[in-house]
Amino acid sequence: MAESTRLVDLVQIRIDEFLERRAPELSAIAPELDPFIDFSREFLSGGKRFRALFCYWGWEAVSGDPDGFDLAPDPVRETDFAAVVQAASALELFHAAALVHDDIMDNSDTRRAKPSAHKRFEALHRDGAWLGNPLGFGQSAALLLGDLILSWSDELFADALTQLATPASAAAARAEFNLMRTEVTVGQYLDILEENAWLRHPEAELLPRAHRVVVYKSAKYSVEAPLAIGASLGGGTAAQKAALREFGLPLGIAYQLRDDMLGVFGDPAVTGKPAGDDLREGKRTVLIALARATMPGSSRRVLDDLLGDPDLDAEQIAMLQSAIVDSGAIDQVERIIDRNVGIAKSAVADAPLSASAREQLLQLADTVIRRAR
Predict the structure, then answer these.
(1) CB-based burial, 244-270: b 16+ in 10 Å, e otherwise
(2) Is the pLDDT of residue 349 over 80?
């Protein structure tokens, strides 16, 4: 995993350098903008960097040696490697922007055991004893921060494309990046739509609709899109990209299903989020859809009444968790996770990809679904 560790370190360096260049631009406008840089630095420090890793290994999968031998030094490959690191860094900025927006929509107070962006801006308002509503100010300011990081992500990505030796690869990568932005944005909408409109749909539609949210809100942009972007940066063939997509989508689904499990049963000391946070937010996940399908009517009515109540206390959270466990939904989700991981691994077993990338992708498949946060 030495290459992965190196990639993570280089991505952090690129992000730090980028923010360092942006800082004087904001300070020259107004010193009151310093929180935008300070908060960005903190949100973009550390993390699992899965999207950056999948971008890199997507590139390595199509540009590395299929037989596993070390490639001879290649100036073009070294130049493209620098572009890939920058593109991977852009994906991490895109992810940070999505999290800032997601926390606003979900009314999440914490992110990685620290205040979320809108709560930080809200605290600025309260500490300054400013006029108006601290909550409204915090949400509006965080929305703008998310927009700014999103624009920075595109700026960083566009600059990466100018470094590529092949214009066709740059065009293909740009198309994948644009598609990813569209899919995750509409996926977010589908997520909040389900939280509000689920009652108006037949019971038989709830599970496929929850699965649709998994695919477009998370699975594609967490795994499939970074792989496709990386492969495009490397000039991958149609067969290579198809294999990476066949690996990426099921693994991305498994990744989000694990996230949904952690959102209900995760340890707050590890996840950095309150216990049962998804229950308070009213997430209509695959886990919830499966649980409702087998619960007795009384338990289902209690779940429906309480799910989405932001004031759920510890006792109510524990009651809902127990009902979900008794429904057998956890075992069902674990089987779905295992099945999707198996499909993903089979997709790259004999694919026309570099030997080193196949090995690393198989390791990443285990890592992303065994995580505790």
Answers:
(1) bbbbbbbbbbbbbbbbbbbbbbbeeee
(2) yes
